[in-house]
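Lab notebook page, bench 4
Experiment: in silico fold of construct C2
Operator: M.H.
Input chain length: 98 residues
Purpose: comparison with the prior construct
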Amino acid sequence: MRRVLRCRNVHPTPETRYVIDQAQVFEAFRESRDFDRELVAIYHSHPRSPAYPSPTDRAEAQWPDAAYVLVSLRGEPPEMYAYRIGEKGVREIPLVEP
């Protein structure tokens, strides 16, 4: 079973930065009785910039096995891409795996 957990952005300037509410994430994992769950993806939007990991996104990436899905809202239609972010850099991956 898969689920999406929407977390609050608790950064003081949420228009330009995001910080996931760690208490909310902890609570979600604590409440889960299924300890075989894995973190598959993390998503957030870029209201005015491309759907590509910013220097801050890359510096703060904590889960190298998760997909980072970015949505750019700078134009119509919105752009959406997925990436793996790790020590070796950024690699675009398909949004849907075959």
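Observations: The longest strand covers residues 79-86. The chain has a mean pLDDT of 85.
Next step: discuss at group meeting.
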